[in-house]
Design brief:
The protein is of the alpha+beta class. Helix 3 packs across helix 4 and helix 4 crosses helix 5. The N terminus is likely disordered.
């Protein structure tokens, strides 16, 4: 699972306007859990809905959506995009009107599905680059390069729901660097910041491509890893500890060797809701600290 919060989903025509500028079709979330999210359309067709097994674009946090709610597809003959409702329970509305049949989309059209409003529009290359940079600033932690907590929580809910539906395990880790205050006091806060950045990048590598990690606080991190039961979650924690020992931080001629206390929880043993799993992992983290730090605890 990539840490990149930007996602290209659909396209097809060459997208050039009459003025010679590249026109990129996009969907922008105007209302809903993903408000501000931008999807670049870069395939022949996509299905929007609530269930990962039915939709190519999963809209989280909207209980009024159907599993497969509607479809947007490119018509090469007309060089246009069209919207079709897929028999959804609550229907699809286009510019406030119920969508009764397949309808061609125009620049600025607003699509209502469930409680979510999406705007269909076109960006030129410069606008696309601007929005990509804004997305990065909003969704990526500048220090570590990890997704911010808001994005992590959204992806965590999606991943857990998929694992519950498929009866697959999922591991949750709460992690806290040991002795950051000592590093700051001894070497300065710039070394402490470099150490946090180093640890964040390393965690991102170790959790990729299937899991995801975020910085939970100043020197605290949390992660999830689908398809890992409790025993494999503990193994992952030990792998993280070993990797930290093997890859110390080098900064201004100094060698800093951070360690990590890690608490582990897992679905289904410790619950089916994100909040409960996070709480169990946090309680395990406290036990790891109490056990002398640099420990993995359940």
């Amino acid at each position: 699972m990539s840490n990149d919060s930007d996602k290209t989903l659909v396209s097809s025509s060459d997208g050039w306007s009459a003025t010679g500028e590249k026109r990129l079709p996009v969907l922008i979330v105007l209302r809903g859990a993903q408000i501000g999210r931008r999807y670049l359309l870069n395939e022949q067709a996509l299905v929007l809905g609530r269930r990962e097994s039915q939709a190519s674009v999963v809209i989280p946090g909207d209980p009024e959506l159907s599993g497969a709610h509607c479809r947007i597809e490119y018509d090469a003959a007309r060089d246009a995009y069209a919207l079709t409702d897929l028999g959804s329970t609550n229907g699809t509305r286009l510019n406030g009107e119920p969508l009764m049949h397949r309808t061609e989309l125009g620049d600025g059209d607003k699509i209502l599905i469930g409680q979510t409003i999406l705007k269909f529009t076109f960006h030129d290359v410069i606008e696309a680059e601007f929005h990509h940079e804004v997305d990065r600033m909003m969704n990526i932690d500048e220090l570590t390069g990890l997704v911010v907590l808001r994005v992590f929580e959204e992806r965590f809910r999606q991943a857990l729901a998929a694992c519950v539906a498929a009866s697959r395990p999922l591991a949750v880790l709460m992690m806290d660097m040991d002795g950051l205050k000592r590093i700051n006091d001894t070497h300065g806060h710039h070394v402490g910041a470099r150490t946090i950045a180093h640890v964040g990048r390393l965690l991102g590598e170790l959790l990729s491509p299937d899991g995801l990690v975020t910085r939970f606080g100043g020197d605290e991190f949390t992660a999830f890893a689908p398809a890992r039961d409790l025993a494999r979650a503990v193994d992952l924690g030990e792998t993280i500890r070993s990797a930290l020992r093997a890859r110390p931080v080098e900064c201004d001629g100094l060698i800093v060797r951070p360690t990590m206390s890690i608490g582990v929880a897992a679905f289904p043993e410790h619950g089916t809701r994100p909040e409960k799993l996070m709480r169990r992992a946090d309680e395990a983290l406290y036990r790891a600290k109490a056990a002398g730090r640099d420990v993995v605890s359940v």
